[in-house]
Amino acid sequence: MKAAVLYEKNHIVYKDMEIRKCQPDEVKVKVMAAGICGSDTHKMIQKWKYDLPAIMGHEFSGYVVEKGSKVTDVNIGERVVGIPFLPCRKCEYCLRGQYSLCDHYGMIGSKSYGAFAEFVNIKATNILSIGNMDFEDAAMIEPSAVALHGVLNIRPQIGDVVAVFGVGTIGMLVIQWLKIAGVKEIIAIDISDKKLQDAVKIGCEKVINPLKEDLVAKIHQYTNEMGVDIALECAGSKVTQEQCLLVTRKQGKVGYLGIAYSDVTLSEKAFENIFRKELILKGFWNCYSSPFPGKEWSNTIEFAKAGKIKLKDFISHRFALRDTQYAFNMMIERQEEYNKVMIIPNKE
Questions:
Q1: I need a surface site. Which of 13, 28, 91, 232 has the fewest CB within 10 A?
Q2: Is the full-model pTM beyond 0.85?
Q3: Are strands 106-107 and 85-86 parallel, antiparallel or unpaired?
Q4: 8: buried, middle or exposed (CB in 10 Å: 19+, 13-18, 0-12)?
Q5: Count of domains in the chain?
Q6: Residues 230, 273 within the same domain
Q7: In a domain, 100, yes or no
Q8: Residue 211 exposed, middle or buried by CB count within 10 Å (0-12, 13-18, 19+)
């Protein structure tokens, strides 16, 4: 098969690779769409800790072209989404059904070959049927599940005012789920005016660009000096990770979905707010619950099919598999403003 193979820091080669036959419990998926996650770019240039050469890509969909001898409940030609997380199913957290916290998980696209390739092998327990769902929509199920995992577990109440920091792919998906959850008002915060305009289009009542306005003052103006009920950090920036603590009301909630890629140093005021305001801080990792992979995944599929949540609308760029290196260069060097970048390994 053809694959985009990572050999070292931001060095990807488009080449022929051997792909083994399916193991008895696996299926082989012909990859029709695979998204580049923000974590892919960071892991590749900062903290790649897995074996090289590697094939990245963990947000993907396609259809089954081969199945192992023990696979009986999957059909050849079935349209599926891949679930990249491989829980051990033996540790304390797996036995509790807290799969996102598994101590010994595997991961398609980092610990094993992923979907920036024409085909990928995956356990039959790690696919879900998508019916007639568009392949690009289906490749967005994983990031949507990440967003929903955060929203479900921060437990917004009807009437809440929520600040969403960072309105890239995850932030935009979070906004949609918050609207479905019944919050009263969402304040989108980003340094890109274009992304803020997009947030308004999907229902954000207010937006703030902190490069142009005083963030804390503006939040106080919008909330009658109270602060927001919930602040959700979706940018993975040490700046916004602190700002969440400055704009949340007393006994409010702060949820962290963005990954910290550098040390976070808090100002005295931000740290004092945690205890003086009795804030509740929660972190959200991955997107899995019981029964595996969880309602984060099943709800995304059901709501997307019903037209209640938009997925592929947030795809800004599409690249052929042979152009994967170009796609990463564009993102890492920020040559263009982008949202979700999709690799298309095979044409329909």
A1: 13
A2: yes
A3: antiparallel
A4: exposed
A5: 2
A6: yes
A7: yes
A8: exposed
